[in-house]
TrEMBL record:
<protein>
    <submittedName>
        <fullName>Uncharacterized protein</fullName>
    </submittedName>
</protein>
Amino acid sequence: MYHNYFQDSEVKSEFKKEFISLWSGWIGENNQYKLDSVTKHEWQRFHNFLALLESKFQIQKVNCNTETLTKITDVSAILDSYEQSLNKDSSQFYQFVIPELECIISEEWDYTYIVWYRDSTTVATLAPYIRKAGLCHFS
């Protein structure tokens, strides 16, 4: 199943990207100060988003080292705290697969997640969960 999504630890090139953020688009160089003022409550929106997804879909955690996907039964239990997330490097960022939607959700820098998808209906399916969590999305 892992190889349906990844090749050489990278998301397969056939996937398109949709970005999920606290903001409705890229903040740009002039607004980078906003990154330093993100509150714990705002940061928590990403966890809320994953919890909302977990209530509707099966979520699997990606392990690129072992090339495996592991079913998650409580996504909140594996996610980092606000304090832990401030000090981690990109090798510790999470990647999740939602098999039903054939998509990957990857944690990225600057308070952004990427949804990697093949079919645009995936974004439409995720949009209500993104909004309900208080997040924005854009291509």
